[in-house]
Write a structure and sequence with these properties.
Number of helices: 5
Strand content: 15-25%
Structural class: alpha/beta
Helix content: 25-40%
CATH superfamily: SPOUT methyltransferase, trefoil knot domain
Distance between the termini: 31 Å
Length: 168
């Protein structure tokens, strides 16, 4: 029987490269759950994101973030910022993953090659200050009875759609 561990599966035949000029950073706005931050860091390492910016979540326990992120913590640059020191890096297009008027379906809209994906807090969504900094908003269609999703799961849907479009 073949090996089933991912370290055996993802050899050169199953790996994918991102198109030159494509990159993604993730901006987590005021998360209150350290496990969600850790999951976002792990996800960032999955899609080869160059950075995670954690804005306004100073109260989250670092030990829980690190435990959930696991080995990913050493593979992704993570910056903890206050809202006052935050700014979107040059060359990136900030896109909100949020259910707001004017949001476009993530599977139908254009996603920039250099994406700064903005994710909002578990309870209140994206702050007005960060939402206003975004050039567009996208949403995930949910035909089922429940119309909400864990923030790390929603980020996964969006980021793997971005990755699908930006693979070589």
């Amino acid at each position: 029987m073949p090996q089933t561990h991912s370290k055996y599966f993802f050899d050169e035949s199953h790996s994918s490269c991102i198109k030159q000029g494509s990159d993604v950073i993730i901006i987590a706005d005021n998360f209150s759950t350290p496990e969600n931050i850790g999951s976002i860091i792990r996800l960032a390492a999955n899609v080869n994101a160059s950075q995670v910016m954690v804005v306004g979540s100073e109260g989250c326990r670092q030990s829980k973030v690190k435990k959930t992120a696991g080995a990913a913590i050493g593979h992704v640059k993570v910056d903890w910022l206050s809202i006052d020191s935050f700014r979107v890096p040059d060359g990136y297009t900030p896109v909100a993953l949020e259910t707001v008027d004017g949001a476009e379906e993530v599977f139908e809209c254009e996603l920039p090659a250099k994406l700064a994906l903005v994710l909002g807090s578990e309870k209140f969504g994206i702050s007005q200050e960060l939402l206003q900094a975004c050039q567009k908003a996208v949403y995930i269609p949910m035909p089922g009875a429940i119309k909400s999703m864990n923030v790390s799961h929603a980020a996964s849907v969006c980021l793997f759609e971005w990755l699908r479009r930006n693979r070589q």
